[in-house]
Amino acid sequence: MVTGACGGIGAAVVRALADHGVPVAALDVDGGVERLGERFAAPGRAQVRGHLVDVADPAAVEEAVARVEEEQGPVAVAVNVAGTLRPGPVLDYAAADWAAVFAVNSAGVFHVSRAVARRMVPRRTGTIITVSSNAADVARTGMAAYAASKAAATHFTRCLGLELARFGIRCNVVSPGSTDTPMQRELWRGGAGAARAVAGSPSDFRAGIPLGRVADPDDVAAAVLFLASPGARHITMHDLRVDGGATLGS
Ligand SMILES: NC(=O)c1ccc[n+]([C@@H]2O[C@H](COP(=O)([O-])OP(=O)(O)OC[C@H]3O[C@@H](n4cnc5c(N)ncnc54)[C@H](O)[C@@H]3O)[C@@H](O)[C@H]2O)c1
Predict the structure, then answer these.
(1) If you take atom 7 of ligand 1, which residue's CA is the nearest one?
(2) Of 40, 98, 146, 156, which one is the catalytic site residue?
(3) Looking at residue 222, which CATH number applies to its domain?
(4) Where are the alpha helices (H) located in the chain, listed in sequence order?
(5) pLDDT for 58-86, tens place per residue?
(6) pLDDT at position 204
(7) What is the pLDDT of residues 137-172, one digit of tens each?
């Protein structure tokens, strides 16, 4: 099960899983989610089924996860990718924007993880992966609400990993840096785009990207796929950075 499935990273994760023969329940609040099944249909690829849901709504999430399990079987891997970005300096930031960002990026991760974990625990198997952000640990100008909401998502996922370890359920975080998706392109409006992200902005206390490129969504999907695989069977509560060295390994 993958949330935020219509977005750049979510779609790459859906495709990566389906290409590895894993049937996918693709969740998003975007109406386009209903057509994801057709969009991803390809020979040799497992089935993808779209489900319209707002992760900020706990009752809707509960209902969607029940429907997914009824229609597609037990959720073995849940990937929290849904996210929202409302940039702006703190002094001018509206309380409503703060609430909206936390409703998706933090509460959404809680709602989805709780709904799947309740079903994974009796089965004593499952893995949960949260796509957070390298902004969760490194301060950014104009992104306080987003970065704080991601810090909450990251630490929530680690704590959940501790609670669920005794049931054999692993919970990990994948933290991308600047990745070429619609969300990232929002930040590039009117600026120099990718070149500015790669160069960084010392005056904003912002490191550039040492590897010299902005990530493709597939770079993030590869990390998710690894953490979902048996090769990661002894890895839990880990935060895997996929940011080209932007946070200098901190
Ligand atoms: N692109 C980057 O540079 C970057 C960097 C670090 C972290 N991330 C994180 O990666 C994740 C995916 O981002 P992306 O770049 O693919 O963005 P995106 O904007 O392309 O996709 C986000 C998706 O989440 C969905 N969504 C938003 N609110 C939702 C809700 N309430 N319920 C269900 N779905 C909802 C959107 O409809 C969209 O399809 C996000 O959590 C984002 O914060 C992105």
Answers:
(1) 133
(2) 146
(3) 3.40.50.720
(4) 8-19, 36-40, 58-72, 95-105, 107-123, 144-164, 182-188, 194-199, 217-228
(5) 999 999 999 999 999 999 999 999 999 99
(6) 75
(7) 998 889 999 999 999 999 999 999 999 999 999 999
- pLDDT (mean) for 99-103: 98
Confidence category of residue 191, pLDDT binned at 50, 70, 90? low
Which of ligand 1's atoms lies nearest the C-alpha of 5? 39
Count of domains forming the chain: 1
Strand, helix or coil at 79?
Answer: strand
**178 within ligand 1 shell (Cβ under 6 A):** yes
Structure tokens at 128: 């949960």
Is residue 243, in this structure, part of any structural domain at all? no
In a domain, 223, yes or no: yes
Q: Is 250 a domain residue?
A: no
Token representation of residue 58: 């706990």
Ligand 1 contacts CB of residue 9 (under 6 A): yes
- In short, whether 130's Cβ falls inside 6 Å of ligand 1 is no
For ligand 1, pick from 28, 150, 183 the residue to mutate: most ligand atoms within 8 Å of CB. Answer: 183
CB 212 within 8 A of CB 204: no
Inside any domain, residue 206: yes
Q: Is 146 a catalytic residue?
A: yes
